[in-house]
Design goal:
The protein is mainly alpha-helical and about 160 residues long. About 50% of the residues lie in helices and about 5% in strands. The longest helix is centred in the first third of the chain and has 21 residues. The radius of gyration is 17 Å and the shape is globular.
Length: about 160
């Protein structure tokens, strides 16, 4: 992961998966086996949907907590990552992606698919998304969708070593 989220074990597990994908890709490339680390965006699991319902129903919810729920309301279904993997598996050029960290929304844009509900989930790399999350909805509406935070910037901000 890029930042602290949920707990220490979750972060270590995410980093471990990324490293395992990179190392497996190195060892398995000679056998024409691709390995990637797939990063879904905010996923609407049953737990998350229940939490969103509780926040909306709670009269003491702060505007900030209500605004933060938007990222999950526009998140992806649990099936979206599977769709992304199906497109990857069918890609004859998948070996060009081996060893990389791939985001599900990036793959959806590249391969042209949407979620099972027919919508495109929120793209956390879009500058407009970051502005919306910060409460700058008006400014975000002026930012074109193609303007995204580059992958190398995400890497540099996540690496604290």
């Amino acid at each position: 992961g890029l930042n602290y989220l949920f707990n220490c074990a979750y972060g270590v597990g995410k980093a471990g998966c990324d490293r395992m994908a990179a190392d497996c890709a190195h060892e398995l490339k000679k056998h024409n086996v691709a390995c990637v680390s797939l990063w879904p965006g905010p996923v609407k699991t049953e737990y998350i949907v229940g939490m969103l319902d509780r926040i909306r129903e709670d009269p003491d919810s702060t505007p900030g907590s209500i605004r933060q729920t938007k990222v999950f309301e526009e998140g992806e279904t649990i099936e979206f990552a599977g769709i992304a993997l199906a497109y990857l598996a069918a890609d004859p050029k998948v070996m060009k992606k081996t060893g990389r960290i791939l985001q599900t929304t990036d793959l959806a844009c590249e391969y042209g698919f949407k979620d099972v509900d027919g919508l495109m989930p929120i793209d956390t790399r879009k500058v407009s998304t970051a502005l919306k999350m910060a409460g700058w909805d008006g400014l975000a509406s002026w930012i074109p969708d193609f303007l995204k935070v580059p992958h190398w910037v995400l890497h540099m901000t996540a690496n604290r070593f």
